[in-house]
Amino acid sequence: MGESNIIAFPLHRRRKLVEGIARVLESKDGEDANAFWRSTVKTILVQLSESGIGPGLAEQEIGMLLRSVLRDIATRSAKLAR
Description:
Layout: H1 15-26, H2 30-50, H3 55-81
Helix pairs in contact: 1-2, 1-3, 2-3
């Protein structure tokens, strides 16, 4: 059997995922927000690993996801401040 490459749709482009995480994080404070993020990341890392995504690429995906989540929170906050 030949070697295959898995191409996953980037996490940071999954709008419902990004917006969902952002909304939950906005509703939590301090350690509750940290615990939610850590739990979410752990679940996603397991899913990526089970899909054949290596640790390095998985960490990059999580980093880009975090930036997108933070951008979504900032955008929503800016709209509310108007």
